[in-house]
Specification:
Helix content: 40-55%
Order of helices and strands: HHEEEEEEHHEHEHHHHHH
Shape: flat
Number of helices: 11
């Protein structure tokens, strides 16, 4: 049963601290996870041991430290220029993907090597294009040429491949086409991390970044469901499990838990919602008042 009057309800859904709303606080957490791989918040307790505030900590100044011999871990952060040591129960820690399960890694960091590889490839392609690109062919000669003759041919060849003029090929020289054309070079130049690729890194459907080139009336609902399952649920599950473990006592964990409501994201069009609502009311799954609340 939902309890809006629970002492944690205000903390999580209204005001986690005096400085920000619940929406701003959660958005800050998500930004920290996606850009730094970790979101850290200080949990402040009252005299009865109940959580009363959640204060975001700077992820670049906060670290998890573990004694490998004992397995005991703690957190270190900076406050007003001084190092502060905090115990695990004092930190609300959300992680992105992780190699060790202890500290998260942002999608950007995880793909950094691949991104750098693409950048190096782009730089090489740029230099090739600025220098006239890969030659469209080579010159073959049946007999050996004297140094002066080679220099003359080379000068004319450079002119042709720097778009200065047309090379003059003397008698006895044969032109042979190479495999890489200018269109191929343009294709390689275009291979970079564009909007679609960045969206894929963060598991965001293209429709969420206003790219509807692949959207149809029939697959919009499917894409929305994919967004919930593949993008939101992993983040929400991590949040729920950390909140249930850190914000409730062992006794409270037997009776209470945190659960996000995804009904808004899972709603279909008005007609589909009306049919589902009618079925739920008719079969006793919802009361009239519960149905009204779902449509608020």
């Amino acid at each position: 049963e939902r309890r809006a009057d629970h002492e944690l309800a205000k903390l999580l859904s209204l005001r986690p601290n005096p400085y920000m709303s619940a929406f701003v606080y959660k958005r800050t957490q998500i930004v920290d996870i996606l850009t730094h791989g970790n979101s850290y918040s200080l949990i402040r307790y009252n005299e009865q041991g109940k959580p009363i505030e959640l204060l975001p900590l700077t992820p670049t100044k906060t670290n998890m430290v573990m004694d490998t011999s004992s397995g005991i871990y703690w957190y270190e952060t900076e406050h007003r220029g001084k190092k502060v040591t905090l115990q695990p129960y004092e930190i609300f820690h959300l992680k992105a993907i992780s190699y060790d399960g202890l500290v998260g890694m942002s999608p950007i960091e995880a793909l950094r090597n691949q991104i750098e590889s693409y950048e190096k490839s782009d730089l090489l392609n740029k230099k090739l294009i600025e220098g006239g690109g890969v030659p469209s062919g080579i010159l073959k000669v049946q007999s050996s040429l004297k140094p002066d003759a080679k220099d003359k041919v080379r000068q004319e060849w450079k002119k042709a491949n720097s778009n200065e003029s047309i090379a003059i090929i003397d008698s006895g020289l044969e032109y042979q086409q190479l495999g890489v054309s200018s269109s191929d070079m343009q294709f390689m130049e275009s291979q970079r991390y564009n909007q679609q690729q960045i969206a894929a890194v963060f598991k965001v459907p293209l429709s969420k970044i206003n790219d509807h080139s692949r959207s149809t009336y029939s697959n919009v609902e499917e894409m929305s469901l994919s967004y919930v399952k593949n993008t939101l649920i992993p983040l929400i599950t991590a949040y729920e499990q950390e909140a249930n473990f850190k914000l409730f006592s062992e006794k409270e964990q037997k009776h209470w838990y945190v659960k996000f409501n995804l009904d808004v994201e899972l709603r279909g069009d008005a007609l589909s919602r009306a049919k589902v609502m009618e079925s739920d009311l008719r079969n006793g799954f919802l009361t009239v008042n519960e149905g009204r609340r779902l449509n608020e």
